[in-house]
Amino acid sequence: MISIDLEKGTVNVDQNGQSRQYGIGTPEAFSLISAAWLRSGWDNKQVYSFTWLGRPIIQLPEDMVRLQEVIYAIKPDVIVETGIAHGGSLVFHASLCKAIGSGRVIGIDVEIRPHNRAAIQQHELFPLIKLIEGDSIAPEIVDQVRKEIKPGEKVLVLLDSKHTKDHVLAELNAYAPLVTTGSYIVAMDGIMEQMAGAPRSTPDWNWNNPKTAAREFVAQNPEF
């Protein structure tokens, strides 16, 4: 149990028969409050309430801000993203490429619904976006993505499609060879591990998630 006293500026946690108190400005208190905020936001579907330049984007704003820090630091020539949904993330990344003055986006999804495809194609930033429909881990799709990348281009990969451990691990192994030195491959939705037991979750989320896949991948690929 967590209790917050704003007047005293304290956060109290009772766990396993032990009580601890932290100042509200400490890293420990911030971590506890953040976990509660994530759970509350998940339960009320906050992540579905945002758009970016007119397209729904199923991302948390703080994650978007952190991700733009990575993109600006790397300035990739190509951003590869698996999972398109409504296209908000593609537009977000394309807008950063436009602002920086370089880069383009490749989006892959097993099914691009006609209304989403039409909306993305009609968007002002579509000239910076390439859509590929198919299973992200199918060899022919990975090969199609590879052919879109020119020799010497800097590549950043973002994995945001099917979030099971096995699928994400397969994506990590398939797309890691495209990542250039100094760049990243990012497995999105690591919060699934913390949401096991919440509404719309399944009991296996405590291990069947992208974070578990990323840990296994890094253990097998220390260069990452």
Describe this structure in words.
The chain has 224 residues and is an alpha/beta fold. 39% of the residues lie in helices and 20% in strands. It contains eight helices and ten strands. The strands form three sheets. It has a five-stranded parallel sheet, sandwiched between helices. A three-stranded antiparallel sheet has the order 1-2-3, covered by helices on one side. The longest helix is centred in the N-terminal third of the chain and has 17 residues, at 27-43. It is globular and about 55 Å long. The mean pLDDT is 97.
Could you outline the blueprint of secondary structure elements for this entry?
Layout: E1 2-5, E2 10-15, E3 18-23, H1 27-43, E4 51-52, E5 55-56, H2 61-74, E6 78-82, H3 88-100, E7 104-109, H4 114-121, E8 129-133, H5 139-148, E9 155-159, H6 165-175, E10 185-187, H7 192-195, H8 210-220
Parallel strand pairs: 6-7, 6-9, 7-8, 9-10
Antiparallel strand pairs: 1-2, 2-3, 4-5
Helix pairs in contact: 6-8
